[in-house]
Design a protein that fits this description.
two-stranded antiparallel sheet; 3 domains
Length: about 140
Amino acid sequence: MLTLIPCIIFGYFDLDVSIYIIHIMARIKYKEAAGIKAKKGKPASGKKPDKTELKKLYIKESRSIREAAEILGCTKDMVYRALQEYGIDRHPNTRRTKLERFDLEFIRDTVKMKGYRKGAQELGVDKSTLYRYLRRMGK
């Protein structure tokens, strides 16, 4: 028999489903209180990424977690868990500038020959971004 119970947020819930959800949440809280690490989130799917492949994609090629997951054929959650397990630090949540793709000497030569305005246009950034980047890198 299907018993529906009212819920303020989601409308109506199937009683069996809501009891199951409460059971899972209570089990997680119990484990955390007992000092046991509780598994949360989406279950892993796909193969676990190899450490060398993951380092190559994530650190050397500076790919995002999503890009690495697409290339490796697994979920982003699996890549995130592998990063934690292998002790690889995550990228900071700041946006990287397009200028990091170019060699610093090439950027300096471009600015020397063309100036900030034309050089910034050629490199695909704003002239203030180019100026700040060179100042930060020790002009």
